[in-house]
Design a protein that fits this description.
Length: 198
Protein backbone atom coordinates (compact mmCIF):
# COMPACT_ATOMS: atom_id res chain seq x y z
CA UNK A 1 0.00 0.00 0.00
CA UNK A 2 1.02 3.62 -0.46
CA UNK A 3 2.34 5.87 2.33
CA UNK A 4 -0.77 8.10 2.07
CA UNK A 5 -3.06 5.08 2.43
CA UNK A 6 -1.12 3.83 5.44
CA UNK A 7 -1.31 7.28 7.05
CA UNK A 8 -5.10 7.38 6.53
CA UNK A 9 -5.49 3.87 7.95
CA UNK A 10 -3.33 4.77 10.95
CA UNK A 11 -5.49 7.83 11.70
CA UNK A 12 -8.71 5.81 11.35
CA UNK A 13 -7.34 3.10 13.65
CA UNK A 14 -7.01 5.68 16.44
CA UNK A 15 -10.80 6.14 16.49
CA UNK A 16 -12.64 4.21 19.23
CA UNK A 17 -13.95 0.82 18.15
CA UNK A 18 -11.79 0.57 15.04
CA UNK A 19 -9.02 -1.99 14.80
CA UNK A 20 -6.58 -2.73 11.98
CA UNK A 21 -9.10 -4.55 9.75
CA UNK A 22 -11.93 -2.06 10.27
CA UNK A 23 -9.72 0.93 9.54
CA UNK A 24 -8.34 -0.82 6.45
CA UNK A 25 -11.89 -1.54 5.21
CA UNK A 26 -13.01 2.04 5.73
CA UNK A 27 -9.93 3.47 4.01
CA UNK A 28 -10.42 1.15 1.02
CA UNK A 29 -14.13 1.97 0.89
CA UNK A 30 -13.44 5.71 0.80
CA UNK A 31 -10.54 5.61 -1.62
CA UNK A 32 -11.51 2.78 -3.98
CA UNK A 33 -15.18 1.82 -3.76
CA UNK A 34 -16.84 5.19 -3.03
CA UNK A 35 -14.29 7.96 -3.66
CA UNK A 36 -17.12 10.45 -4.17
CA UNK A 37 -18.00 10.18 -0.48
CA UNK A 38 -14.57 11.35 0.65
CA UNK A 39 -14.98 15.10 -0.08
CA UNK A 40 -18.44 15.06 1.54
CA UNK A 41 -17.03 13.38 4.65
CA UNK A 42 -14.11 15.82 4.85
CA UNK A 43 -16.50 18.78 4.53
CA UNK A 44 -18.82 17.38 7.22
CA UNK A 45 -15.88 16.88 9.59
CA UNK A 46 -14.62 20.42 9.00
CA UNK A 47 -18.08 21.93 9.53
CA UNK A 48 -18.63 19.93 12.70
CA UNK A 49 -15.22 20.93 14.05
CA UNK A 50 -16.14 24.61 13.59
CA UNK A 51 -19.80 24.51 14.64
CA UNK A 52 -20.10 21.93 17.43
CA UNK A 53 -19.05 23.13 20.88
CA UNK A 54 -19.84 22.25 24.49
CA UNK A 55 -23.07 23.59 25.92
CA UNK A 56 -22.04 26.32 28.39
CA UNK A 57 -24.62 25.09 30.92
CA UNK A 58 -24.34 21.30 30.86
CA UNK A 59 -21.37 20.29 28.69
CA UNK A 60 -23.45 18.45 26.05
CA UNK A 61 -22.87 19.01 22.34
CA UNK A 62 -24.35 22.28 21.09
CA UNK A 63 -24.27 24.64 18.14
CA UNK A 64 -24.43 28.37 18.74
CA UNK A 65 -25.72 28.41 22.33
CA UNK A 66 -27.43 26.01 24.69
CA UNK A 67 -27.87 22.39 23.67
CA UNK A 68 -31.32 21.19 22.56
CA UNK A 69 -32.02 19.62 25.97
CA UNK A 70 -31.15 22.72 28.02
CA UNK A 71 -33.14 24.91 25.62
CA UNK A 72 -36.24 22.67 25.82
CA UNK A 73 -38.65 24.35 28.25
CA UNK A 74 -40.64 21.11 28.56
CA UNK A 75 -37.74 19.47 30.43
CA UNK A 76 -37.66 19.62 34.24
CA UNK A 77 -34.67 21.86 34.95
CA UNK A 78 -34.94 21.06 38.66
CA UNK A 79 -33.78 17.46 38.17
CA UNK A 80 -30.19 17.13 36.90
CA UNK A 81 -28.69 13.80 35.85
CA UNK A 82 -24.89 13.89 36.14
CA UNK A 83 -23.05 11.67 33.64
CA UNK A 84 -19.40 11.13 32.77
CA UNK A 85 -19.49 11.58 28.99
CA UNK A 86 -21.81 12.65 26.17
CA UNK A 87 -22.36 9.01 25.02
CA UNK A 88 -23.69 8.29 28.53
CA UNK A 89 -26.19 11.12 28.11
CA UNK A 90 -27.25 9.66 24.75
CA UNK A 91 -27.72 6.24 26.36
CA UNK A 92 -29.96 7.65 29.12
CA UNK A 93 -31.95 9.65 26.56
CA UNK A 94 -32.45 6.48 24.51
CA UNK A 95 -34.10 4.84 27.52
CA UNK A 96 -36.87 7.50 27.37
CA UNK A 97 -37.12 7.23 31.18
CA UNK A 98 -35.82 10.70 32.05
CA UNK A 99 -37.36 14.11 31.37
CA UNK A 100 -35.02 16.27 33.40
CA UNK A 101 -31.76 17.87 32.23
CA UNK A 102 -28.14 16.72 32.31
CA UNK A 103 -24.67 17.70 33.35
CA UNK A 104 -21.69 16.12 31.58
CA UNK A 105 -18.50 15.95 33.64
CA UNK A 106 -16.31 14.81 30.70
CA UNK A 107 -14.61 12.22 32.88
CA UNK A 108 -14.33 11.12 36.49
CA UNK A 109 -11.82 11.66 39.25
CA UNK A 110 -8.80 9.42 38.84
CA UNK A 111 -5.67 10.55 40.71
CA UNK A 112 -3.73 7.57 39.33
CA UNK A 113 -4.36 8.88 35.80
CA UNK A 114 -3.78 12.49 36.80
CA UNK A 115 -7.46 13.51 36.58
CA UNK A 116 -8.39 15.91 39.36
CA UNK A 117 -11.37 18.17 40.05
CA UNK A 118 -10.00 20.95 37.82
CA UNK A 119 -9.96 18.56 34.86
CA UNK A 120 -13.72 17.94 35.07
CA UNK A 121 -16.73 20.11 34.23
CA UNK A 122 -17.46 20.78 37.92
CA UNK A 123 -17.45 24.58 38.21
CA UNK A 124 -20.52 25.00 36.01
CA UNK A 125 -22.32 22.26 37.98
CA UNK A 126 -21.64 24.03 41.27
CA UNK A 127 -22.80 27.28 39.65
CA UNK A 128 -26.08 25.59 38.60
CA UNK A 129 -26.59 24.32 42.15
CA UNK A 130 -25.92 27.78 43.59
CA UNK A 131 -28.92 29.21 41.70
CA UNK A 132 -31.28 27.18 43.89
CA UNK A 133 -33.18 25.89 40.85
CA UNK A 134 -31.98 22.29 41.24
CA UNK A 135 -34.12 20.07 43.49
CA UNK A 136 -32.52 16.70 42.74
CA UNK A 137 -29.11 15.62 41.54
CA UNK A 138 -29.04 12.11 40.04
CA UNK A 139 -25.52 10.69 39.98
CA UNK A 140 -25.40 8.35 36.98
CA UNK A 141 -21.69 7.60 37.10
CA UNK A 142 -19.88 4.32 36.60
CA UNK A 143 -20.12 1.76 39.36
CA UNK A 144 -16.37 1.58 39.92
CA UNK A 145 -13.79 3.12 42.28
CA UNK A 146 -13.37 6.33 40.26
CA UNK A 147 -17.14 6.74 39.84
CA UNK A 148 -17.70 6.31 43.57
CA UNK A 149 -14.87 8.76 44.35
CA UNK A 150 -16.44 11.32 42.02
CA UNK A 151 -19.86 10.86 43.67
CA UNK A 152 -18.27 11.29 47.10
CA UNK A 153 -16.42 14.44 45.98
CA UNK A 154 -19.64 15.96 44.64
CA UNK A 155 -21.57 15.34 47.84
CA UNK A 156 -18.74 16.81 49.94
CA UNK A 157 -18.45 19.97 47.85
CA UNK A 158 -22.11 20.99 47.60
CA UNK A 159 -23.06 24.26 49.28
CA UNK A 160 -23.66 23.66 53.01
CA UNK A 161 -27.10 25.27 52.92
CA UNK A 162 -28.25 23.13 49.99
CA UNK A 163 -31.75 21.78 49.76
CA UNK A 164 -30.84 19.37 46.99
CA UNK A 165 -31.81 15.71 47.11
CA UNK A 166 -28.94 13.52 45.92
CA UNK A 167 -29.69 10.12 44.41
CA UNK A 168 -27.48 7.52 42.79
CA UNK A 169 -28.49 5.06 40.12
CA UNK A 170 -27.14 1.57 40.57
CA UNK A 171 -29.97 -0.93 40.50
CA UNK A 172 -29.56 -3.02 37.38
CA UNK A 173 -26.08 -1.76 36.49
CA UNK A 174 -23.33 -4.36 36.96
CA UNK A 175 -20.40 -3.59 39.23
CA UNK A 176 -17.63 -2.03 37.19
CA UNK A 177 -20.05 -1.35 34.33
CA UNK A 178 -20.90 1.99 32.83
CA UNK A 179 -24.04 3.72 31.63
CA UNK A 180 -22.91 3.60 28.00
CA UNK A 181 -23.09 -0.20 27.71
CA UNK A 182 -26.40 -0.73 29.52
CA UNK A 183 -29.51 -1.47 27.48
CA UNK A 184 -32.60 0.77 27.64
CA UNK A 185 -34.55 -1.50 29.99
CA UNK A 186 -31.64 -1.71 32.44
CA UNK A 187 -31.20 2.06 32.38
CA UNK A 188 -34.90 2.62 32.96
CA UNK A 189 -34.79 0.27 35.97
CA UNK A 190 -31.67 2.01 37.26
CA UNK A 191 -33.31 5.43 37.04
CA UNK A 192 -36.54 4.27 38.64
CA UNK A 193 -34.64 2.42 41.39
CA UNK A 194 -32.30 5.26 42.31
CA UNK A 195 -31.53 5.76 45.99
CA UNK A 196 -30.52 8.60 48.28
CA UNK A 197 -26.79 9.20 48.16
CA UNK A 198 -26.22 11.98 50.68
Amino acid sequence: MTPAFEKLQKQLKQLPGLGYRSSERIALHLLVEKPGQLPVLVEALQQAALAVKRCPRCGNLAEGGLCAICADERRDAGVVCVVEHVPDLVAVERSAAFRGVYHVLHGKLSPINGVGPDDLNLKSLLARLATGEVRELILALSNDVEGEATCHYLTQHLPADRAVKITRIGFGLPSGGGVLYADSVTLKSALEGRRDYS
